[in-house]
Amino acid sequence: MSSLLSLYKKKENNGTEITVKKTFLVPLSELYVEPGYNVREIDQEHVAEFRDAFIAGEFVPPLTVQVSDKGIKIIDGHHRYYGAVAATESGHEIARLECKDFSGTEADRIAFMVTSSQGKALTPLERAAAYQRLVNQGWTPAEVAKKVKRSAADVNHHLQLLECGDALIAMVKTGEVAPSTAVALSREHGPKAEAVAQSQMQEARAAGKKKLTRSAAIPQFSAVKARRLVELLCDSELVKVEGKTALAVDQKYVSEINDILRAYNTPDGGRE
Predict the structure, then answer these.
(1) Has residue 78 been placed in a domain?
(2) Pairing relation of β-strands 24-27 and 96-101?
(3) What is the largest CA-CA distance in the chain?
(4) In the beta sheet, which residues pair with residue 66?
């Protein structure tokens, strides 16, 4: 059976355009993890999956690393590294891991951790933290979006998630509130969003629910009442009253219009 190496060695004869990008087998003991560097939180189940893969002798993609004065720092592949450590601790020694160099700036490394398809998918909060790292380095949200190949709206939405307050962020972490709902609550209620979310979550739990939905968190005004108000106002006229412009409506509709407006301004009144 042929191989890429044999094809490469005979490239002058076979016309292949294969090039070489080296990887290296690095002793496990020479690799290290910088605390707080990885934008992903370590998922022990994911670590166990790699541990089992190493023990079974399955293919595991190479880690991406950077040589520093402390040793060989892992840029991408933290779960693979911890999986190899776990396999070794289980009695299946993994002497070396395949690694490849990463070249680029610190911003490049952060963007790589965000966009890498090798690692475990980022949670919204992890992605938000990575975006914030880049912003802290002087990047604008538009520049971050271009760097991580996402839309500017996506970057801004995730950055807003970090501004929701500790209590709401904690609810996002536990899955009680969706990230988009947390941002919407923050926009709707400002500093009171955390208290509102906690109160509504208690009501949701009392109803046997484990998650606060957006419709429950931010009830929408009754579409039926809104349409009725438009119907009542469609025949109104603009009139000048003491230098101001007012809506003149049929007297028989005044009471119903006031009822709808009162419901709109009352908490939960006419909401659905």
Answers:
(1) yes
(2) antiparallel
(3) 95
(4) 73
Beta bridge partner(s), residue 265: none
The band of 263, judged by pLDDT with boundaries at 50, 70 and 90, is: confident
In this structure, the answer to whether residues 95 and 168 fall within a common structural domain is no
Q: In which domain, by residue range, is 184 found?
A: 163-218
Tokens of 137: 């380095």
pLDDT in tens, 212-256: 887 777 766 777 888 888 888 887 888 888 888 888 888 888 888
93 and 36 housed in the same domain: yes
pTM: 0.66
In angstroms, the Cα distances linking 180 to 2, 32, 263 are 52, 36, 27
In whole numbers, what is the pLDDT of the chain averaged over residues?
87
Q: Can you read off the two tokens belonging to residue 132?
A: 């914030």
> What digits encode the pLDDT tens for the residues 44-77?
999 999 999 999 999 999 999 999 889 999 999 9
Count the Cβ atoms, other than its own, within 10 Å of residue 140: 12
DSSP line for 105-158: -HHHHHHHHHH-SSSPPPPHHHHHHHHHHHHHTT--HHHHHHHHT--HHHHHHH
Do 77 and 132 lie in a common domain?
Answer: no
Q: Provide Rg for the chain, Cα atoms.
A: 29
Q: Is 65 part of a structural domain of the chain?
A: yes
Q: Within its chain, how far is the Cα of 47 from the centroid?
A: 21
